[in-house]
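Ticket #235: bound-state structure for 2'-O-acetyl adenosine-5-diphosphoribose.
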Amino acid sequence: MDLAKFQRKNIVVLTGAGVSAESGVPTFRGEDGLWRNYRAEDLATPSAFARDPQLVWEWYQWRRELIAACKANPAHDFIARLERDHGGDFLLVTQNVDGLHRLAGSRKIVEVHGNIWDVRCASCGAGREDRTLPFPELPPKCDACGGLLRPGVVWFGESLPEEAMGMAFAAAESCDLMLVVGTSAVVYPVAYLPQLAKRAGAYVIEVNPDETPLTPLADESLRGKAGEVLGEIKL
Ligand code: OAD
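RESOLUTION: The complex was predicted; output attached.
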């Protein structure tokens, strides 16, 4: 991958669960993926929360514990350096809720599926970061209205945060390079972003050990683990 020609150009990086795999955060699909052992409709939908908020929270608290023990890896570090050093417009669009990009130093980020360290009241809508671990009772309650707090993430069947998606689409349409790291590229609308970038003339590079539906469209596919592939690139 030759990034020299994209110095001072517009770069969008799109990441999925694979970028955090080497940090020890499980992916969703694939051999050890979360959706192999858990049914999304029991745990990650508004109706699952309405039915059994405690069960949903137990799952999210387990994931918070797991993520709290993880550190950023060389792929997160590379993406943070790219933002800092390349000198042009930059946006990181992540589907990940683990917060590891921010930990690695990335700043221009849109978290289109939310963040597992945020909570939001299911009744009054008040939202904030809350890193309490473990919560003394599950489900936790809203200080303002006593309603049930829910994880600040996007669930299946919910729309994505409008402002974040607006920024992501605008950046995809105007970037010169889109670097797509560690996503199966099957979850929409995020999977539209590389298609949009490509149509608008961007160079698209995919980093993933496996082929994805994006592969035929990508200008380059770098086969390997994100930390290994990106960790070797000097900027
Ligand atoms: P997936 O689990 O669908 O895909 C992970 C991708 O990472 C796969 O293509 C793997 O081949 C790749 N991968 C695995 N290890 C890797 C490594 N070390 N380096 C690079 N790539 C690696 O995760 P996402 O594409 O992020 O949504 O899934 C998209 C959305 O589906 C998630 O945000 C989540 C999920 O349901 C919500 O929860 C709303």
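RESOLUTION NOTES: Residues 4-24+72-113+159-231 form a domain with the Rossmann fold fold (CATH 3.40.50.1220).
TICKET STATUS: resolved
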